[in-house]
Design goal:
By secondary structure, this protein is of the alpha+beta class. The chain contains ten helices and 20 strands. It has helices at residues 2-15, 33-39, 65-71, 84-91, 107-117, 125-133, 137-159, 167-180, 240-259, 266-277, and strands spanning 20-25, 46-51, 57-60, 75-78, 97-100, 120-123, 184-185, 190-193, 212-218, 220-222, 225-226, 229-235, 286-288, 295-299, 312-315, 318-320, 325-327, 330-335, 338-341, 350-351.
């Protein structure tokens, strides 16, 4: 699987006449997701090199060599003390253009690499996102498992929702269950009740869970791959008008999913949702998921991108006012030209 990923990426490099792609993990808190994507390992400091032809290499500190070598999908090389750039220069010999991911390298790092290697540097962030936007069968299996774990945890939380006193308690439960299942959080959970639900990226507070709609947005990371599910429950007794608003969002969500088809317009699906929901719908309709929680494709206006087999993404329409918010989100796969929902948790309104 990794061999296929790398070969496809090398073809992109050759088309751009780029001789080498370099990726940098500069610290524990600054990790380029493409390194994990191509190698399958997480390393605090390392440099991944993918030549347009030949074998990739992963340069790591000597004390990391044995650990990383056991799990890496590519050749691992120990950095010689004080010789990092000498080693890089030897790998880049005869190469004029080097590709780097501008979204993950700082200006000072970029200047340092240019000074030491004396090459022309080209931004390949777009090529990286293109490569990762279509998943392999193995990646899809891992994402399916990630979705399965996340929905199991959400189902358990919803079953015992009455016992939670605050939004923060719900979020802490989700985090604890994530660890119990051997995963990490894909992102900090959103638990937004009452008027808080009107803020799409609200962070849960210590106050009591408010009556009205409560938006719960949650996902896990399993074997390096993310899931992302949102369900909205109602605390108290909803009015007929509130039930109808929820059904309106649910209908848009279901129809949007059906509209996601191989070769179909990505922006066209967003346009449909916006036409129905109007100004109450202030964000994109969805985003790709993979080794990052936000990848390509982006389901937003403009652009000529099409849905392709192997793409995995969210579909999450919502409506928001100063008094309430509703969002319903599933993870969707394009398979044989059609949309397949990976998150099977019921979307009927749960009234607590």
């Amino acid at each position: 699987i990794c061999f296929f990923m790398i070969k496809q990426f090398q073809e992109q490099l050759r088309r751009k006449k780029i001789g080498m792609a370099l990726f940098l993990n500069s610290s524990l808190h600054k990790q380029d997701p493409n390194i994990f994507y191509f190698t399958g390992v997480e390393v605090e400091f390392c440099i991944l090199g993918i030549p347009s032809k030949g074998r990739p290499f992963l340069l790591v500190a000597g004390f990391e060599y044995e650990r990383v070598r056991k799990d890496s999908r590519v050749r691992v090389v120990a950095i010689k003390k004080g010789k990092l750039f000498d080693q890089l220069r030897s790998y880049c010999k005869g190469i004029r253009k080097v590709g780097v991911n501008h979204t993950m390298i700082s200006l000072s790092e970029h200047k340092m690499f240019r000074k030491e290697l004396r090459k022309k540097f080209i931004d390949i962030s777009r090529e990286c996102m293109d490569a990762r936007s279509v998943k392999t069968k193995e990646e899809i299996k891992i994402i399916e498992k990630s979705c399965s774990i996340a929905q199991k945890i959400l189902k358990k939380m919803l079953k015992g929702f009455k016992k939670f006193k605050s939004e923060l308690e719900v979020a802490e439960f989700l985090e604890a269950e994530t660890r119990k299942n051997g995963c990490s959080l894909a992102f900090p959970p959103i638990v937004a009740s009452g008027k808080h639900a009107g803020m799409p990226h609200y962070m849960p507070g210590k106050g009591k869970i408010l009556k009205g709609f409560c938006v719960i947005d949650f996902g896990v990371k399993y074997r390096g791959y993310c899931s992302d599910i949102t369900r909205t429950v109602y605390v108290g007794k909803p009015s007929q008008a509130e039930k109808e608003i929820y059904e309106e969002v649910l209908d848009v969500q279901k129809k949007s999913v059906k509209m996601c088809m191989g070769g179909g317009s990505i922006s066209g699906v967003f346009d449909y949702a916006l036409n129905v929901l109007g100004k109450r719908f202030p964000h994109g309709l969805g985003h790709g998921i993979g080794v990052e929680i936000h990848e390509w494709p982006n389901l937003k206006p403009g652009g000529k991108e099409k849905f392709l087999d192997g793409m995995v993404f969210t579909v999450e329409p919502g409506v928001y006012t100063k008094k309430y918010g509703i969002r319903i989100e599933d993870d969707v796969l394009i398979e044989k030209g059609k949309s397949v929902i990976l998150t099977k948790l019921s979307k009927e309104l749960i009234i607590v």
